[in-house]
Amino acid sequence: MNYQELIDDAVEAARTHLGHGRVADYIPALACADPNAVGMALATVDGEVFQSGDASATFSIQSISKLFTLALVLAEGGESLWRRVGREPSGNPFNSLVQLETEHGIPRNPFINAGAIVVTDRLLTLTGDAAEQVRQFLRAESENPALATNAEIAASEAEHGHRNAALAHFIASHGNLDNDVDAVLAQYYGHCAIEASCRDLALAGRFLARHGVRADGVRLLSRSEAKQINAVMLTCGTYDAAGEFAYRVGLPGKSGVGGGVLAIIPGRGAVCAWSPGLDPAGNSVAAVAALDAFTTGSGLSVF
Ligand code: DON
Known about the structure:
It is globular and about 50 Å long. The chain starts with a helix and ends in a 5-residue tail after the last helix. It is of the alpha+beta class. The chain has one domain (3-298): Beta-lactamase, CATH 3.40.710. The chain has a 5-stranded antiparallel β-sheet with strand order 3-2-9-8-7. Helix content is 45%, strand content 13%. A hairpin with a 3-residue loop joins β8 (260-265) and β9. Bound molecules: 6-diazenyl-5-OXO-L-norleucine. 6-diazenyl-5-OXO-L-norleucine (DON) binds at residues 62-63, 94-95, 113, 157, 164, 192, 255-257, 282-283. Keywords: Acetylation, Hydrolase. This is Glutaminase.
């Protein structure tokens, strides 16, 4: 299979969608991203990397970080996490509050903001520094020691984070946070505001394609846990658009409002596409189009 040609073609297909989405501005520091940027990278399980377009440019990973916090909690033997957060699609926007009230402060899944706040709380308890754990993991997998949190974006999120603060306090009112609300939110913003490239994220996602085995050959998750995370990505990773994403792309995927989408091809590799313009559900229009073109062109899908 000619991976380079496939991702070059996918990026070209994505370019026709530039201008169709809106760059996130509810976190003001994200609003200055270049709406015409588009990149894609594929990292195979055998260690090859293919790149196209702006694949080396860094962007704010935002909710893609939720994938790594979940993996790190489960790796610490976190099966009990599932008593505190569900694994059903919410069918609601990523920052919605409505289900929490009737569902007793137990978020629907670990990828909506409410669920990710609970996962961050657990990782903070387990390790003492959730954001640092994510940074270290990403640096090691991508072999990019420069990978860091953008403090300006983290501060911008905190300053405009009334909704996340409301979610966290509501969850805490149900006794589902172990740490201080402000400490948990600081950690949550700290990992969302990490900056990485398509290349970095494709490399960092590869452990899920390798059924739980990290770049250095050490097993982070059991094969079964890797399957579970991929399944939750497929059903919940792109929020209330997860059905449409599964239909078009046919791979487990996790998006972020920085415009990145990381998708896993179990047994083959991880592929990340990025372009800042978002659809109303908060997923990148051109990045999803690139992944759609890639799986349509290659036939690589879990279906
Ligand atoms: O909490 C937030 O709203 C952001 N830090 C993350 C949201 C996000 O990336 C949703 N993804 N598409």
